[in-house]
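WARN no homologs supplied; continuing
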Amino acid sequence: MEANVSINKGKAASPIGKVSPIKRWAKLLFQSKTGTVGFFIVFLVVFVAIFADILAPYDPAKNNLSDMLKPPAWSDGGSPAYLLGTDNLGRDILSRIIFGTRVSLLVGVFSVILAGIIGIVVGLFAGYYGGIVDNVLMRIVDSFIAIPSILFILVVLSVFRPSLLVLIIVIGFTNWVTYARVVRGEVLSIKEREFVKASKSIGTSSITIMIKHILPNILSSFIVISTLSVATTIVLEASLSFLGLGIQPPEVSWGGMLTDGRNYLATNWWLATFPGIAITVTVLGIIFLGDWLRDVLDPRTQIRK
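OK structure emitted
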């Protein structure tokens, strides 16, 4: 009888301590004000980028010279048809910002993915094998660090015709060194742990050890760095487009909108103000989310509930 009671108690008590990963992450997220704000900003930006064709009221590249330089709807002379006004060619500012969101996210995310893949591969091999492999790969990393990335990007973009694909490749191939250094440092520490040594002792191949045992243990650092890198990449893309070496018309980018509006700052402030706000809010949202991820994924500061 007592045994049955104890078994029933154990069965009843076991589900209580279980918390699904989604609920746990949601709880941790809403406990952080900056994390919550960052998550909703990033969610909104991603939503706008995905559904830009539906959300945009007008074609972002269509000129309408009869409605050029109209102020925002709430200003004198504004029209409800153009909520944020129009530019010097009569194009709707709101529609251009919405489509610019897609371009910024594509460049930011895919260039970071490319840089992360290269950095992880280089860091894994350098940290795991050490010796001459480590020396050769780290000298390559040092040579990339010695050349300012923005200078290298400007040289490449001045040779090749700037496009979305070219931007992603160039930015990805210049920003991988950060990942390589961080991953190498993590691997140097992890490869000395007992579970890695045990895998070696039973004859597990080096590739298998790196993929199955070491890589999962460095993903948290990679996610944090990647999240923050997306923010800096978005700013870099906007800067290149502002200089005329980024996304080319008729494609829309926030940096290109800033270029169009810089000559009208004194008279038509909305041309450059709203794209600037879009860049600022997006970058801050990603940084807030990245800071929260760093706190949650860092085992030294992780809150266990």
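DSSP finds 13 helices and no strands in the chain.
OK
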